[in-house]
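Annotated sample (chain length 282).
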Amino acid sequence: MLAAAAALPTAAATGSGGWLPAGLTPGTLVLLLLAALAAGWVDAVVGGGGLVQLPALLLVPGIAPVQALATNKLAGIAGTSVSAATYLRHVPDGQRPPPAVALPMALLALGGAAGGAALASSLPGEALTPLVLGALVVVLVVVVARPRLGETSSQRLTGLGQVGAAATLGAVLGAYDGLLGPGTGSFLVFALVGVLGLAFLRATATAKVVNVATNLGALLVFAPQGHVLWGLGALMALANVTGGYLGARTAVARGSRFVRLVFLVVVGALVLRLGADVLGLT
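Output written by the structure step:
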């Protein structure tokens, strides 16, 4: 894999997009692949893989923030597609994504992500960081304060109310994913658990379907603009797919309580990292 990567043209030689960033070394590539593997596992279990993968890309010399975001989407869509397929094949019937929630949520999320991606190169992500941090703190407090939240499915909305809520959540979180990204999977899981009443395992399976749509929506904008580093993204996609498959199988085997525990750890890590960003400690 590393030998093949060494033969690919760099971003500097091919304009704003390309195959690999000019400052990439074999050692850095190995670290990126390990980050993609870990991100795939985390993202498959509970979302939030961008916490690992996107910051790793941003550390590469010569890569622009929008290139990092676009390449992260390419790697991410591979992993989320595999983990979504794994959930659909292996979860019990009662834990499968409900079509009345997954379909409208995914469709609106795709459009929202495309809109967010269109703004990504013009709106500084730092402007959103304090708002995202505040939302994550609320999510963390609610889940900790309600230890039985998400253990079982308890449908709160039906009919058009359920479809409308799913579509609205999809549009809002899709736009956030296209614009910034990290924490989207965790927000999706929490919305599905807290608003629609799904159990954590079922919410995670549904979130993977929606996450495929958000990644696709962003890529439909980033790719024509030439921001995707295709060679690096393809290599990271292989690692992300492996992590995604292993994470999905782990979550299915361990159930909602395990997913809830990982959710708390990931959201806590997101709060710490974004808090450090806001305080200027990174």
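Annotation: Residues 2-278 form one domain.
Annotation: The chain has eleven helices and no strands.
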